[in-house]
Amino acid sequence: MQRIWKRARRLRNGATDTERHLWRYLRRENLAGYKFRRQYPMVGYIVDFVCIPATLVIELDGGQHADAVGYDAERTRVIEAHGYRVLRFWNDDVLLRTDDVLAEIWRGLGVER
Predict the structure, then answer these.
(1) At 9, is the pLDDT very low, low, confident or very high (cuts 50, 70, 90)?
(2) Are 85 and 56 in contact (CB under 8 A)?
(3) What predicted TM-score, i.e. pTM, was given to this entire model?
C-alpha cells in the first residue's frame, strides 16, 4: 500500500504539461467548489484526477493509450464498479479545446453553468 502512494507522489511531481494545464482549472475548488485530487490511488490504480464527493474520475489519455485500449477499458470498468463515473479526454483536447473539456467536466459534476 505504501508503494502505490509513493508512486502517486512521483507522478504528481512529474506531471505532464497536459496534467498541469487541467490542474490549473481543477485545483483550489475552482469548479463550483468541488475539490479534486490529482494522481490519487484508488481500487488498485492511480487516477489522474478524482472528485470524491461527486464520485467523478477524470483520466487524460496520450498517444500511449492507443495501444492500451483493453487495459483502459478494464480499468474504467473496475473504477465504475466502485461507484465512480469516469470521463476520459485526449491530451490534445485538453490543450486545444479546454473550454469544451471543462464544459464536459461541469456536466459530469451535474452543475448548471
Answers:
(1) confident
(2) yes
(3) 0.88
